[in-house]
Design goal:
Helix content: over 70%
Order of helices and strands: HHHHHHHHH
Number of domains: 1
Largest sheet: none
Number of strands: 0
Number of helices: 9
Strand content: under 5%
Shape: globular
Distance between the termini: 27 Å
Radius of gyration: 17 Å
Length: 171
């Protein structure tokens, strides 16, 4: 682990090593099957929710592998990306912070919900319905599609080494 002086005077951002993983998370969250077969709303909110679902899984796996610092950096990349997206949408400086605060809060809530679901404490389909469909009842087929793909991803993530995950290999 680098000393504080090494980090202060480092020429590169330590989060740069996390960018490939972050880009893969976003690309996975944008896959058409989530919105077609899974019927996740193809809206800004729906895409946010889908990316956060995958990000939550990756963050949980990083934490399980002892990658707490990497999970912080990955979260920081997410926040930076969301900040940039809001600014592109024309949201002004005055309210960007409030929006980011709500997004980070949403990420925290979803982490809690998905952590409980993947540990068996709660039902995954309930967490999906609440967080991806925001209370709108999806068809049984759509819910089954999303649940089966998230479960399969969770199993694959559980097989990955820390190095493979950090390299952006989501299995």
């Amino acid at each position: 682990m680098p000393s504080i002086f090494q980090r202060l005077f480092a020429q590169s951002d330590p989060r740069d090593a996390m960018r490939p993983l972050y880009h893969v998370v976003v690309a996975e969250g944008r896959q058409p099957h989530w919105y077609v077969e899974g019927q996740v709303p193809d809206t800004i909110d729906g895409r946010f929710d889908m990316i956060v679902a995958i990000l939550a899984q990756v963050l949980m796996r990083l934490e399980a592998l002892g990658g707490l610092q990497e999970s912080v950096w990955l979260t920081e990349l997410f926040v930076d990306d969301m900040d940039g997206q809001l600014r592109q949408e024309g949201i002004g400086d005055v309210v960007v912070g409030k929006h980011i605060g709500r997004m980070v809060s949403a990420l925290g809530g979803r982490l809690t919900a998905y952590r409980a679901a993947f540990s068996g404490e709660t039902r995954l389909d309930d967490a999906i319905a609440r967080n991806l469909y925001r209370g709108r009842a999806p068809s049984a087929d759509a819910l089954a599609h999303v649940e089966s793909h998230l479960r399969a991803r969770w199993v694959r993530l559980g097989c990955l080494s820390r190095d493979a995950l950090l390299a952006g290999d989501l299995g």
